[in-house]
Write a structure and sequence with these properties.
By secondary structure, the protein is mainly beta. The chain has one domain (about 1-69). The protein has one helix at about 10-15; strands spanning about 1-5, 25-30, 45-55, 60-69. The protein has a two-stranded antiparallel ribbon with strand order 1-2. Strands 3-4 form a two-stranded antiparallel ribbon. A hairpin with a 4-residue loop joins strand 3 (about 45-55) and strand 4. The two termini are about 30 Å apart.
Length: about 70
């Protein structure tokens, strides 16, 4: 679960709901497969990925440091 501030042009405001106000911290929950890799060889690896929605001023960046033994 992530906590993030709502942007001024959030979906709820667009739909005419009075809540949430811009800047209010709220929760966002996501689920799914974001990265699927072929088996990695033994050793240390760094996996980096992310996404952004510039029109909503939202983005995320994830870095995994993996050791395969």
């Amino acid at each position: 679960m992530n906590v993030m501030p709502y942007p001024a042009d959030n979906l709820w405001s667009f739909l005419g709901y009075p809540w949430p106000d811009a800047g209010v911290l709220c929760c966002a929950i996501t689920s799914g497969y974001y990265v699927m890799l072929t088996p990695l060889p033994k050793g240390e690896h760094t996996v980096v990925y992310g996404a952004s929605l510039p029109h909503l001023s939202m983005s995320y960046h994830v870095t995994y440091h993996i050791t395969v033994r």
